[in-house]
Write a structure and sequence with these properties.
Number of strands: 2
Helix content: 40-55%
Distance between the termini: 4 Å
CATH class: Alpha Beta
Strand order of the largest sheet: 1-2
Number of helices: 3
Largest sheet: 2 strands, parallel
Shape: flat
Number of domains: 1
């Protein structure tokens, strides 16, 4: 996405946020490799903009809050049900198939 919001926010003050996202991805891949021969599927779903209250729960700097508000005003964001559909897709693949990573984002969030 051209602009302030994209898959990972790399803004001053978001170090812990980015650390946790990268940590979850690394842990997920490690766990996937450990259990895959037992046909246990492990994957990570990474959503783009979703209509939730998350933005209102953070104490953002004014410019970050403005960028977030602008993004939600200009983007047809996903519904929580869209994410649920992605989870259902990941866990209903045939036993021999595994989805290790799935990105779901609004079509106008490049």
């Amino acid at each position: 996405m051209q602009g302030p919001l994209h898959r990972s926010w790399h803004w001053n003050g978001y170090g812990v946020y980015n650390l946790t996202k990268f940590g979850v991805n690394g842990f997920t891949e490690s766990l996937r490799q450990e259990v895959t021969r037992r046909h246990v599927r492990v994957g990570v779903l990474e959503p783009g903009g979703v209509a939730t209250e998350l933005g209102s729960h953070n104490d953002h700097k004014a410019e970050v809050r403005e960028a977030i508000n602008s993004f939600y005003e200009q983007t047809e964001v996903l519904a929580p049900e869209d994410i649920a559909d992605g989870v259902a897709y990941m866990v209903t693949r045939p036993r021999h198939a595994s989805v290790g990573e799935l990105w779901i984002m609004p079509t106008d969030q490049a």
